[in-house]
Amino acid sequence: MSPRLSWGAYRGWLLNGNLWKVILIGGSLALGLSGGGRWWLSVRSQRAFPRKAADFPFIHRIDQVITKAQEQLTHDPEDLQALTRLAVARFAQGPEHYLEALNVLERARRLGAIDLPLFYYAGVMYEQLALPEYALLEYMKFLRHVPQDFEVRLRAGNLHLKLKQVDQALAQYRTLQRLHPHDPILEFNLALAYQEKGMTAEALRTLTRLYQRTHQLPPVGFYRLGQLWEQSGDWRQAVAAYQKALQLQPKDIPVMEALARAYLHEGDGTAARALWQEILIIEPKHRGAKLQLASLKKSSH
What angle do CA 130, 185, 220 make, to 5 degrees? Predict the structure, then answer.
């Protein structure tokens, strides 16, 4: 069971004087570390075109752009430029307009639109609409034209991982690793893929190396690190990692469960009992906590 960590879309938080920002990519995590003025997810080997709302030159007059495109389509429903302009404008307006944007974009493509950014926009929208297979197809089309685009290849790798296509995910990440051997985003995602593949030692080595170099991980990173230490049989290290995860994400029940389990393996029944009791305060009907407390009570007699 994964922790229900509140990594809201496109939010960040302060950690050890730096800012970890989170970009949710296809249900997986791509992380950026900002510190000392650095932003790790900078534009690297990317084809220049607007990708965020603020990047579009028409964003401050977007209603006019949409109105004009709609008027042109009233006179000519197959006006390719108007269709493309309308699709891109709806994309720029944000996720609540993605369904309409995709419908218009697909009309434009059926009529022959082949602009490279359209593959990117379609991929992002399909991803947001929880259609990862369609999104992945769009990203792969894009990568045939711009194979070194960091963001798109990372998105493709994460979608492969979400779809349990772990070998394909690893192939995408390793391709990027050759270009960006010390990228923290990439190292974190590689660790997740290694863990999913069952390569515990490699996942642990990758994640600990990242932590040693950056001196920080997000809450889910410490949770994963705890899992890896646990799978390696080092419960003392697992306790330390889960404790850090819980410090960063208090009252997260899956993390609390993992830490209580690690405490028990370390012989600290008192600390485990306190956590199970706290879980019951948060979630009074938590069956596992009730069973564990009953077991601890029975063993104490």
Answer: 70
Residue 300 has pLDDT above 80, yes or no: no
123, HSE (Cβ side, Cα atoms, 13 Å): 25
Domain boundaries, the chain: 47-145
Structure tokens, 51? 């990708």
**CATH class entry, domain 47-145:** mainly alpha
Structure confidence at residue 116 (pLDDT): 95
Task: Compute the distance between CA of residue 20 and CA of residue 153 in angstroms, rounded to an integer.
Answer: 21
Max distance between CA atoms of the chain, in angstroms, equals 85
Structure token pair of residue 106: 């697909």
- What number of other Cβ atoms are within 10 A of residue 94's Cβ? 11
Strands of the chain, DSSP E: 12-15, 18-25, 28-35, 38-39
Distances 168 to 118, 162, 180 between C-alpha atoms, Å = 24, 11, 18
Query: 13 burial class (0-12, 13-18, 19+ CB within 10 angstroms)?
Result: middle
Report the C-alpha dihedral over residues 271, 276, 277, 281, rounded to 10 degrees.
Answer: 140
**3-class SS of residue 127:** helix
What's the rounded Cα separation, in Å, for the pair 250 and 264? Answer: 20
- The residues facing 29 across adjacent strands are 24
For the stretch 43-73, pLDDT in tens is 355 668 999 999 999 999 999 999 999 999 9
Residue pLDDT, tens place only, 228-265: 999 999 999 999 999 999 999 999 999 999 999 999 99
Cβ(154)–Cβ(185) under 8 Å?
yes
| Cα 40 to Cα 70: distance, rounded to the nearest angstrom | 39
Amino acid at 61: R
DSSP 165: -
- Percentage of residues in the chain having pLDDT higher than 70: 84
- The C-alpha angle with vertex 92 and arms to 91 and 96, in degrees rounded to 5, equals 60
